[in-house]
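wait is this the right file?? whatever heres the structure
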């Protein structure tokens, strides 16, 4: 099991050679550091190593374990059943030593049986196969594009894989569909990477929406509450605009863009 302090010390003293990257199992980055050391005489990698050391020293132990020790014995997240307030299943990190949920101690709502991709995605998420879970959750949305729990769980998976824009997009979609357990968005462990982004404060002020309509009055931007009959059209236009931006920035392929657009306009 990798140690956070050791990794930080490696980065501080030997970061110029990429030793900490090899220690963390990031062989590709380690090789890149060696290459940069050769062409820059260690100047660039020395600076990068110092930055990495600061990040590692200030990183929470649980965040370090989730990112670098997940494949060495750390138990992956599991899903809670629907809570008393009626919210959808929420991904939660499993405590060490606890048995994984099985069909005997975790029930699957009957409506979810009709969406096998959702069930398979949850299983893969529990096994920490995040890429596989993402693919199944996305296919699940093709069956039911308005499934709030699928959007929320996709946001968690994208956060854990550090795909921030996609995580924000699915949080926005979940909220637009009625998700209102905002305390989960502020405290959920799997959304930690989303919350450390500079834009999270603005995102939170906007009610966890990517875009808030505004009108200008006396040179001051004042939020404008959309009319009830225009809400659906505004949401659709905002989502389509956001999808186009993600595609233009290379964060969505043309195929992914077409799928997401078809789901929104269905």
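ok assuming it is, sequence goes like this
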């Amino acid at each position: 099991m990798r140690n956070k302090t050791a990794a930080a010390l490696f980065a501080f003293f030997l970061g110029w050679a990429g030793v900490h990257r090899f220690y963390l199992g990031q062989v590709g980055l380690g090789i890149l550091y060696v290459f940069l050391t050769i062409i820059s005489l260690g100047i660039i990698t020395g600076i990068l190593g110092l930055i990495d050391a600061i990040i590692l020293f200030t990183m929470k132990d649980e965040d370090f374990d989730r990112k670098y020790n997940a494949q060495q014995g750390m138990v992956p997240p599991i899903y809670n059943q629907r809570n008393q307030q009626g919210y959808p299943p929420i991904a939660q990190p499993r405590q060490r030593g606890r048995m994984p949920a099985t069909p005997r101690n975790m029930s699957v709502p009957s409506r979810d049986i009709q969406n096998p991709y959702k069930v398979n995605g949850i299983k893969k998420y529990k096994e920490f196969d995040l890429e596989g879970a993402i693919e199944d959750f996305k296919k699940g949305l093709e069956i039911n594009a308005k499934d709030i729990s699928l959007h929320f769980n996709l946001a968690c998976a994208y956060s854990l894989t550090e795909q921030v824009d996609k995580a924000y997009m699915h949080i926005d979609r979940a909220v637009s569909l009625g998700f209102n357990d905002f305390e989960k968005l502020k405290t959920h462990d799997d959304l930690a990477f989303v919350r450390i982004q500079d834009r999270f404060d603005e995102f939170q002020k906007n009610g966890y929406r990517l875009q808030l309509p505004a009108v200008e009055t006396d040179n001051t931007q004042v939020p404008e509450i959309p009319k009830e009959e225009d809400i659906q059209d505004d949401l659709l236009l905002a989502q389509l605009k956001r999808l186009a931006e993600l595609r233009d920035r290379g964060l969505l392929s043309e195929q992914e863009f077409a799928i997401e657009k078809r789901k929104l306009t269905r």
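The chain has two domains: 4-71, 76-210. so i think its the right one actually
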